[in-house]
Structure of MFS transporter:
Amino acid sequence: MPQTMTGRERTILAIAVLASFVAFLDGTVVNVALPAISDELGGGLTTQQWVVDAYLITLGALILVAGSVADAYGRAFVMRIGLIGFGITSVAIALAPTAEFLIISRALQGAAGAFLVPSSLALITSTFRGAAQGRAIGIWTAMTTTAMIAGPILGGLFVDFLSWRLVFLINVVPIAITLWLLSRAGVKDSRRADAAIDWLSAALCTLGLGLMVFALIEQPRLGWTSPAIWVPLVVGAGLFATFLVRQRFARHPILPLDLFRVRNFWTGNVATTFIYGALALNGFVVVVYLQQGAGLPATLAGLASLPVTILLILLSSRAGALAGKWGPRLFMTVGPITMGAGALLLLTVSQAFDYWWQVLPSMILMGLGLALTVAPLTSAILGAIETERSGIASAVNNAVARVAGLVTIAMLATIVGGQLDLEGFHRAAVVTAAMMVAGGLVSWAGIRNPKAPADEGQESRNAA
């Protein structure tokens, strides 16, 4: 019989769920609103790319340093700062008079969001122990996953019947509730005396990524020979290389490179790069094309990928359990290749658009493949690292996934050939499929299933 949670434990779990829900919800509502944003503020595809990537740049870079900040200043304090920052920037985005103002606000929102998910999980792991911790994380996962369903639907309804600006105010109420609960929970901040924050590394990572992404997004408009392209690209690459070198020698690195000596960890992160880069590309292209190319209203475009989320919720835990029994390698191979096949089905989309025959089969295969992939991928990566370092291992994998999506969206104009028409949509589908298959092949070649206890015992007896 599972032990009943105390009132304080329920409150802390509610705080963790709501804080993470805010970040997840924002990530899922934005794509639906992109066409409406560019229609009002201008900039076309470039504006749409920057609305997504400005958020991902700061989120991906600063999520690595979030653990150090929480150690130095306390988890509850950091969560309050993240929530307040997220709320203020959400209001700023809703009031944005220009595309440039909105993009800057999105970058600041990403910086605030970087501190929400890690601090939420840290609250759970510091409050719950043993089986209760596993149960709490399971509830957290289930509840935050609902953001994947609610986001596109709410975003579509707001865009169609109210305004895209109100999409960014959806999270203001849960932020206010979370801050109120946090004040009542009596969470005591614990700070490590030896905690250190490597702000220089964070700055090098953020500036390096930002300059390279700027070059990739603006290149189709200005060309590779323009100094406005190749100078930021070279400088950005240099700054990011300096960041990596610094991680090798820094006393408190935000990206411990020694983690990548572990086979399943580095292989899993290479697979993550391909898979999550492809997911970001597919998520962006499908919801935008269904509005701008197929002429669907935002609500229906948001509902189009609902089968993916439903299948993920229904099958992911089962796939995780089977991967725990048989090992993650097969699932990490079959899952991405299945998603690749689903992406290729989007080639059936034509000018005579029909969701049920041209898009739904793709969404079903994508959902099946994603359900086979997510839990085994996570367990393979985190299971390869000792438990006391699982926090930083999770942060690194999360950052890799965000940066993969960041780079893919930055290269969108090159991938689709300048504009997201039917031909560009088909080109994106082929690239998505190729990246998914690459992720599956990397997993098959590099991932090793952990030895079962019986196997380890047999080896010990043979060695004796």
